[in-house]
Amino acid sequence: MADQFLGFDLSTQQLKGIVVGSDLKLLQEAKVDFDADFGAKYGIEKGVLTNPAEGEVFAPVALFLEAIDLVLQRLKEQGADFSKVQGISGAGMQHGTVFWSQDAEHLLANLDAGKTLLEQLEGGAKGERRGAFSHPFSPNWQDASTQKQVEAFDATLHDPVNLAEATGSKAHHRFSGPQILRFHDKYPEAYKATSRITLVSSFLASIFLGKIAPMDISDVTGANLWDIKNGRWHEDLLALAGGSSGVEDLRQKLGSVPDDGGASFGTISPYFSARYGFPSSAQIIAFTGDNPSTILALPLRSSDAIVSLGTSTTFLMSTNQYKPDPAYHFLNHPTTAGLYMFMLCYKNGGLAREHIRDAINGDKSRSWDKFNDVATSTAVLGQQSKDDPMRLGLFFPRPEIVPAVKEGVWRYTYTPDSGLSNADSDEKAWPVPAADARAILESQFLSLRLRSQSLVEPQGDLPAQPRRIYLVGGGAANSAIAELAGQVLGGSDGVYKLEIGGNACALGSAYKAAWGVQRGQGEKFEDFLEQRWNEESFVKKVARGYRKGVFEQYGEALKGFNGLEKVAIEEKGEGKADDLAKDLGLDGGIVKN
Ligand SMILES: Nc1ncnc2c1ncn2[C@@H]1O[C@H](COP(=O)(O)OP(=O)(O)O)[C@@H](O)[C@H]1O
Ligand SMILES: O=C(CO)[C@@H](O)[C@H](O)COP(=O)(O)O
Description:
Blueprint: E1 4-10, E2 14-21, E3 26-33, H1 34-42, E4 49-51, E5 56-60, H2 61-77, E6 85-92, E7 97-101, H3 104-109, H4 117-121, E8 137-139, H5 147-156, H6 160-167, H7 176-186, H8 188-192, E9 194-199, H9 200-209, E10 226-227, E11 232-233, H10 235-242, H11 247-254, E12 264-267, H12 270-276, E13 283-285, E14 288-289, H13 290-294, E15 305-309, E16 313-319, E17 329-332, E18 340-346, H14 350-361, H15 369-377, E19 390-396, E20 408-415, E21 419-422, H16 434-452, E22 457-459, E23 462-465, E24 468-472, H17 479-489, E25 494-498, H18 504-518, H19 525-532, H20 535-538, E26 539-543, H21 550-572, H22 577-584
Parallel strand pairs: 1-6, 6-13, 6-14, 15-24, 24-25
Antiparallel strand pairs: 1-2, 2-3, 4-5, 5-8, 7-9, 10-11, 12-13, 15-16, 16-18, 17-18, 19-20, 20-21, 22-23, 25-26
Helix pairs in contact: 5-6, 5-7, 7-10, 10-11, 14-16, 15-16, 15-17, 16-17, 16-21, 21-22
The protein binds adenosine-5'-diphosphate (ADP) and 5-O-phosphono-D-xylulose.
Residues 11-14, 310-311, 350-351, 353-354, 368, 473-475, 477-478 line the site of adenosine-5'-diphosphate.
Protein name: D-xylulose kinase-like protein
């Protein structure tokens, strides 16, 4: 195969790489699993370090550097011929930042192919060698340390509604703007010593480029700093985040943002040509966020939805309507001006499901078999008959984003007439952990259904729902999850998963690299993908979608579910319950006790 393209996904728990041909078919893929490969060395768990006292979650930048050399080596072992690679793009977990030192540009431009990235870019532990970073850690999207800064962001534009209107999202703990402000206040010396700030995506691009790469037009919208309508940094928010160091200083640290998602930032760093055999002409195409990249792996039509089941759960749609609201996120689309990405993001995705899986197994075998059996054999909402109360739960081992509550578990029963009752210690109504398996899946999908109602349309004679649901990410391999996704969310055309490789996000990046290099004058990404798309071999239907009766039964549960979220917010919330109900245009369920 003549021209080949390489895509990466640097996410919470792994770095994955995928090579595709110009027909977009998969050639090789490889991954570095952070815990398995480097857990002992860096003391990480599930890819991160934590400081619970302050709600901090972060990852060592050195880990990322080691992972880059290792994933390339593994791709080579899989047979990748890097001399054929004409374009490289990639994705990073969103919101995370990397702080570069004054020496960064020089070090990046003068890498010795005989040494590893880690040897040359990491600073010496005792300061005997100055490294490329002014801070050794990258704040992670699971960080919750920025409550004070979040309040300042909302206050700067008077309220969350205005902030969402301007930047696509209300202020969130994990967003880069509040994180930068906290970094400025907590580490003033390191901030001063910072020459540039990149996102995780533009960090990865910088390594391949051999100089600091710009942020991309989509990933920059996960910062609470970008004025989406006007396509520029938001002056007031920049001034806030830059603190006493000033707005110009921060503007310079952040750099400019090209508006073309297919832009080439230049050719690959000579380090990679000499060390791994890439042609010196290989182009580095704008790297984006992991969720924006994921939507590029599929030819999304209006009313199609992606559910990404990684460490986080995200729900993604592509739309030409900009309807921002504090209840969710709007991002710039990564390739296509005039399109936006609608996103919901939950912290308690894969790890919360794993907790219940392990409790059901009673061991650490990590097998999903029992979890799946119990989840699919339990009745819809735990209702043996229509008159039984519904079981509704919330399972948040970590503080949650949607809704914004501290960690906790809520198990309630609900009937439309008498409302919600606490069933936590009622073994008959709610056998723990068996009933949790179905309840957590129903809960996660009900939350998506509740919040995406206004974005989906009736499908023919069927009620409003997505046309297709595509499952991606680690959890997409799970048949019980696919089954429940279809039952709760519907999907007039069914539930699908990608058949190409194990990672939609890295695949989307490889496609973006191909488009960036090969596109004709004015050729849109969507047209480029459509022409090369091979439905039969690229996707597979894994479950039925809409089921008459079942879909409506879940519809009846929505009001109770909304009420349950209000209970959680009242008990452990970061926001006001009334606001949530208002955001969603719903009255909450009635709480009985
Ligand atoms: N068969 C499976 N069933 C359910 N969940 C799974 C399965 N395989 C992997 N996972 C989940 O996938 C998650 C990792 O997904 P992945 O998309 O690779 O993560 P990330 O991109 O966040 O690093 C894990 O937390 C794990 O719980
Ligand atoms: O914070 C968000 C999106 O807003 C997360 O979705 C991160 O982008 C990390 O995702 P994964 O590691 O789960 O892929």
